[in-house]
Input
Amino acid sequence: MREDRLCDCCAHPSRVWSYGYKPDPRFHGTGPLYLGMELEIIVPDSRYSECVAVASDHLGGLGYLKHDSSIRPSGFELVTHPMSYRHAIDHFPWPMLAALRGLGCRTDSSVGLHVHASRDGFDSPAHVYRWMKLLYRNESAVTTLARRRSRYAPFDRAARARVKDTAKGHRPGVGLDRHQAINPYPRSTFELRVFASSLDSRCVQAALALTVASIEYTRGLRVADVRAGGWEWSRFAAWVAHHPDYQPLAAEMEDLACAC
Output
C-alpha cells in the first residue's frame, strides 16, 4: 500500500459506515494512555444528511460516523480515533455538539457515551485491579456522574467478583458479556460504558476526565494508601480538586453533589 493513500474514512468523510466498520487507528497526542470515544446521537430524519455533513466537517480526520440500529428512531454513533486526554480537550471540535443540537439532534437515557482507555496506559495488572476496584466500590457516585443507570452497562456482581482475574488478562468467563460497567473484552482497551450520551461539552469532557483521572489516581495507590481509605470517593474527589487538568470533572462533581 502506498504511504500517501488515504484511509477509507478520510477518503469518504461524509459517509456513515456500517456498525462493524473499524479502520486502522490513527493516534493523536502523546501516549501511552489514549482514549477513544463513542457518542450515540439521536438525529431527526428530516435533517439526517445535513447533520452527517456538519459532524463530518467538524471531525475531519479525528473520527468517523457509524450506523447503530439501537439508536431510535434514527441516529448515528460518532467514533473518535485514539486521543490523549490533553489532545481531546484542546482539539476535539467541541462547537460541533452545539451545532448538532441546533439542528435538532438530541440525547436521552436510551443512548450512551462509551470511553475506551488503552491497556498500554496502565502500569501493571495490579494497577488495572486498583482502577476497577475504585469504580466498582463507588457505584453510586459513578452513576451519579454518568447521569444514568443502564441495563447495557450494569455494575454486575459477578463482574465485580472477577476483577482480580480480569486485571490479570483472563477471559471474564461464562455468563458475562460486554454489556457491563467496564467491558474487558476489547483486545487493546478497557471500555467504560456507564455514561449517558450528551451534546453538552462539559458533560462529555467530564466523562473523559473521570476515565483518565481515575486511572492516574490509582496509578500511585499503594497498599498502605488503600488501608488508609484510598478507595473512598472523598479521597479521590479531593485529589481531582487539586489537579486543574480535570476541571470539567471537578465542576460536574460540585454540580451533582458528589464531590465528597
